[in-house]
Amino acid sequence: MKIEHIHVISDNQALIRIEGLTCPVTLLHVTDSHMNVTDAQEGLKVLVDSIAAYSFDPLNTINHFERALAYANELSVDGVLLTGDMINGATANNLEYLHSRLQSLNAPNLYTPGNHDWEYPGEPWGESTRQAQYGKFNRLTRGNPACQAVEIGGINVVAVDNSTYQVSPHQLAFVRTELQRGLPTLFLYHIPLYVPSLLKDVLRDWGSPIMMAAEGWEATHMEKWQVGPPSDSTLNFCQLLRENPYGNIIGSFCGHIHCSHKDALGEDCYQYVTQAGFAGGYRMIRLLPLDD
């Protein structure tokens, strides 16, 4: 499968031409909106902890998100892709708001959680909290927050939750099964895979290499961010995307670091990091037949 990534001088566009695609497919990618509409429904302490923990302007974040959804409907896109940190905390109001707004879309959506989606005010960040909150995301993720897939216009869009900087053996097996279908495949995940050219900007903005399977971590920073060494399945997932053994990975889209970036993961496969939604960021993805 021949794939051509067309360079566009813009932080919010991606044009990819794909051999065998029969008609154009347009997708809107939104990430890191960091919305918070938590109220006192779950108790005053939850509300106070929620307000204290998050400094994003609630009106601006919601306005940017609403504009993105309206834009998707206005352009009649074929799908909307969301790669995590859409909300700050798995509170009842946050989840209900996100669910209700996604119901307003005229196109299918695919959403994979980020580390801020499943955290809960007053609870320690980590795998135990993720597992405690995970079930709340079933109705947003086709019943499986860990990994899911949907076919849009002949494109297989696969979402993998890597919000703890790891990919499990179960997720890796799911990915391999989806790739074996042979369809042109696009990946969604929250945390970018380590790319050397991205390291300088990430260190400048965050002080730590907050990418999956990143090099350059200091032990004290790993403890602060609660990032463990990459598991074998995590490394195998990264290798799979870089080597593209089935030849049908057309690209991957993610967020987490709040800036826009594009770089090759391997032959014919690019990783696109999209600017944060709370700052008005989005990316329009246009997939075109190669012979257009």
Automatic annotation (TrEMBL):
<dbReference type="InterPro" id="IPR029052">
    <property type="entry name" value="Metallo-depent_PP-like"/>
</dbReference>
<dbReference type="Pfam" id="PF00149">
    <property type="entry name" value="Metallophos"/>
</dbReference>
<feature type="domain" description="Calcineurin-like phosphoesterase">
    <location>
        <begin position="26"/>
        <end position="200"/>
    </location>
</feature>
<protein>
    <submittedName>
        <fullName>Metallophosphoesterase</fullName>
    </submittedName>
</protein>
<dbReference type="InterPro" id="IPR004843">
    <property type="entry name" value="Calcineurin-like_PHP"/>
</dbReference>
<dbReference type="GO" id="GO:0016787">
    <property type="term" value="F:hydrolase activity"/>
</dbReference>
